[in-house]
Amino acid sequence: KLAKLLRFYSTNDPDQLTSLDEYISRMKDDQDTILYLPGDSKESILKSPILSKYTSKGYEVLLLGDAIDEFCTQHLTEYEKRKVKSIAKDDVSIIDGNDEIAKKKLQKLKEMYKPLVDWYKKTLGKEVEKVTISNKLVDTPLFIFTSQYGYSAQMEKINKAQAFANQEKAPSYMLAKKTLELNPHHPVMRHLLESIKENDGEIPESEQEYARLMFHMALLNSGFQIEDPSAITEPLEKLIRVGFGYDRDMVIEEIEIDLEEDNDANDDDEEEDDPEEDDIEGEAEVEDAAAIHDDL
């Protein structure tokens, strides 16, 4: 009964609150799930890279920009015989629905990208639970979804922010289990796949750093916190060097400053324009003028 009183913003009208009943009235005929996406604010949620695929296919998504919102939906798994799910979870499979052709294409892409998927699994190890190919991404190269069980990225962040939360004693089953999904259509992913094929299952060292950088960027995009900021700042600095036309591993050399040249220049200026000498000459001229006046 209380669920009928809930109001959320949605992609249908980001400035107007809507009820779950109103959401259901606008659902597509083949849609059986109420979709939502949690985040820090409505504005940040609207910029999420996973929204565009759903909105382009006509699916409305509720925007949960308040910290308390996800506490409600965690206990509201069903409403009016419709499932309630976060599109940031890896178990939402509404995009392709019953489209068998799309499913076959996705399976082909998974086979094609197996070398890159295996490389990411080996490289990231326990940092992710699994790696797979995605059908939910448009412009971003990769994204991190969470398991349907345990915390979402947003809930994990809220839990860590609690003043007396003891992270060491947090049950492992409640921590967010990360699923890295790769966008097979993105040019960077296609390039990495070709690099692996050309280098016997490995990516060149210079590109490995950028592959990991994209993973950390995906963490931020997905709402996770970065424990080690240098994992992003160091490779970004190298990218900036390359962008300005310098070598990525260029050694920074200290500028040599010659203070003796400045001292010599100051000495020359003093000799050319000595104020004391000017004063003496001025006084002499005044005395001469006074003597001439007395003679007259």
Automatic annotation (TrEMBL):
Residue span of region Disordered: 258-296
Keywords, comma-separated and alphabetical: Chaperone
Top-level lineage group: Eukaryota
InterPro entries on file: HSP90_C (IPR037196), Hsp90_fam (IPR001404), Ribosomal_Su5_D2-typ_SF (IPR020568)
GO MF entries: ATP binding; ATP hydrolysis activity; ATP-dependent protein folding chaperone; unfolded protein binding
Gene3D superfamilies per the UniProt record, alphabetical: 3.40.50.11260, Heat shock protein 90, C-terminal domain
A Pfam family of this chain: HSP90
Signal peptide location: none
Biased composition (Acidic residues): 258-288
SUPFAM superfamilies xref list: HSP90 C-terminal domain, Ribosomal protein S5 domain 2-like
Family: Belongs to the heat shock protein 90 family.
Protein name per the record: Uncharacterized protein
Organism of this sequence: Strombidinopsis acuminata
